[in-house]
Automatic annotation (TrEMBL):
Residue ranges constituting the Tetrapyrrole methylase domain according to the UniProt record: 3-218
Gene name as annotated: cobF
GO terms of biological process kind: cobalamin biosynthetic process; methylation
Keyword Cell inner membrane: no
Single GO term (MF): precorrin-6A synthase (deacetylating) activity
Protein name: Precorrin-6A synthase (Deacetylating)
Range of residues in the leader sequence: none
Lineage, broadest ranks: Bacteria, Bacillati, Actinomycetota, Actinomycetes, Mycobacteriales
Organism annotation: Mycolicibacterium anyangense
Length: 244
């Protein structure tokens, strides 16, 4: 039976790659990667660099797949579901045509496959079209990288932490510590000015940016820095922790 590794490769620094991930990398014949266009080509290149650094045997190869377009308007949940379905069809065809009946392939998940990553959900759909077994190798998440770089604990003493998105923050707000991901609209600007924020972008890379303070003190500055960085690189990955 075909096998697939889903390998968490950390938040940007190749040193985040675990020994378990290195073993899985060296067990892989074909790496499947989503081609998201020229602006994000360095994300594929980082995956290639990790392979060059850690794989000790020759013969592996990359198969780049064009990422289907996701509808920008209409119902968000339906748009994501349709996008996942389109990806699943493409992945199923690629696995069937590029991987032998007992071959081993891999998807390299940025950060960790458990946290706001679609890989595992899509593979569930792929399994409806082609037979394979898979495992998951956890990685260093952006949450871990953010708190480590700011040298702070994730939670207040005895208190919970919410992990949410910018969309949810705009709709519901927060009453305690919250990690916010996937926020393209700087939703923290709607928080009370005394809210503490620890923000980071391109964590673990040479382009890393860190800002901390209250929303009133640094909120507008973060929005400006974020816009400039996104314009400069053509993409941005950022995350932040809020505390009222």
């Amino acid at each position: 039976m075909r096998r697939i590794h889903v390998i968490g490769i950390g938040a940007g620094d190749p040193d985040y790659v675990t020994a378990q991930a290195v073993r899985a990398l060296n067990d892989t014949e074909v790496f499947f990667a989503m081609d998201k266009g020229q602006a994000k080509s360095d994300l594929v290149e980082l995956r290639r660099e990790i392979c060059r650094r850690f794989i000790t045997r020759p013969g592996y190869r990359f198969v780049e797949l064009p990422d289907p377009q996701r509808a920008a308007d209409g119902d968000y949940t339906q748009a994501v579901a349709d996008w996942h379905t389109a990806r699943a069809r493409m992945w199923a065809k690629a696995i069937e045509t590029e991987l032998g009946p007992d071959g081993t392939g891999a998807f390299l998940a940025w950060g960790d496959a458990s946290l706001y990553d679609s890989t595992l959900r899509i593979l569930e759909q792929v399994a409806e079209h082609v037979e394979f077994g898979f495992d998951v190798i956890p990685g260093i998440t952006a949450v871990q990288a953010l708190t480590a770089r700011h040298r702070i604990p994730l939670n207040d003493v005895g208190e919970p932490v919410l992990i949410t998105t910018g969309r949810q923050l705009r709709g519901s707000g927060v009453s305690g510590s919250a990690v916010v991901m996937l926020d393209g609209e700087c939703s923290f600007l709607g928080c009370p000015p005394q809210t503490r924020i620890w923000w980071g972008a391109y964590l673990g890379t040479p382009q890393e940016i860190l800002v901390a303070g209250t929303v009133g003190e640094v909120g507008e500055h973060i929005a400006e820095v974020r816009a400039a960085a996104r314009a400069r690189h053509g993409w941005i990955m950022d995350i932040y922790l809020l505390r009222p």
